[in-house]
Write a structure and sequence with these properties.
The chain is 33% helix and 22% strand. By secondary structure, the protein is of the alpha/beta class. A hairpin with a 5-residue loop joins strand 1 and strand 2. It has a domain of 107 residues. The strands form two sheets. The chain has a nine-stranded mixed β-sheet, with helices on both faces. Strands 5-6-7-8-9-10 form a six-stranded mixed β-sheet. Bound molecules: zinc ion. Zinc ion binds next to loops.
Length: 389
Amino acid sequence: MFDPTPSAASPQSLDRRQLLQMAGSALATAANSTQSSAQGISASGVKPFRNYREVLARLEARGRKWRVLGAAPDGSPIVAVKCGGDKLPAIFISGGAHSTEHAGATATVEVIEQLKTQHQVWVIPARDPIGLSGFRHALSLGLGQPPKLDSHEQLDNFLRKHGDVLYDADGTLLVQIGEHGYANRGLLGKFEKGAKFLEPLLGRRIWYASRRTDTPGSGPLERAYTLIVTPDGEILHLNRFHDTAWAPAEVRCVRQLLAEIKPALTFDMHEHDHGAHYWMSARRQRTEEDEVWERRMAAEAVRAVKGMGSTLAPDSYSPGSFFDKLEPGVFWLDAGKRGQGLNLVDFAAKHYGPGFTIETGMQCPFEERVRQHLTVAQTAVNVFEQRYR
Ligand SMILES: [Zn+2]
């Protein structure tokens, strides 16, 4: 059950200026310790997962026990792993909501082993098991058996042959096979809400195959991107619905765990495909104290990424119209301006406290991207521990 009761508000005994000064001076003293504080993190030899089975197999091989929160529509268990220490408040980490962003999906499994903290940590390593298992797996759900499909070039003919065509224009093909939709390319923002031809798919899913060829592991057919058609005909993805009663099973699992553990820090590990640079999004917080710590964790995290020798988003870069720059590599995300309801970190900020969406650049080498995720998590957690010392 979803419990919308926010955790207790922080004490308001300090005014905003005092808090900002505190954060500033602590930043200055901590600046030199950042690199050493995230030392020991390694992504050497870490490879992307080819499917969700491999995620569970790796957890099992490492002796990790998990809790089953629910199931995706293919029957895959949505699992959460508890790690870290026993100290509260808890930390929540997840990734893989967008399965093509596979450095994030890989980092969620590595972070279970590598994150050092006394605080209780809960990790949902993959929020989209179907997408992670690839486009052929997604197709098998509609067909009732594995498809005979060898390459992306055969895709259009395959979809026309096996599905009912719902839309076919300007190089975009959408068909229905069984209960599901399948597309030959991304559809986000492509159609008008409530478009008539989407009626057979209301409340259902659409999968499309990645078209990338420059990022091994996210290439054609290796991943499926999961889209959901809302009951009123809007196409959204799995990192939405956190504040809607109508929500896909994968999202309800996350919400249920959050209500239980009430995390005071949340990370969601993503990637972007606009280059090799790193950035992250922060959220305005319910209390000034929370917001001071949000800023401080973000500032130290990007400093640590820079310290790795990685590239931060250039000054001229903006991820979109609903972002405001906080400092190099960090943007405030305003869900109100964006629309589409709340994503995981928007929702965490509204109900539980600080959190970040981490965005590594898919054109940066894979191991470096995984290391960025781990470094950011560890650096922010080190700051978080100072708060609750
Ligand atoms: Zn993403």
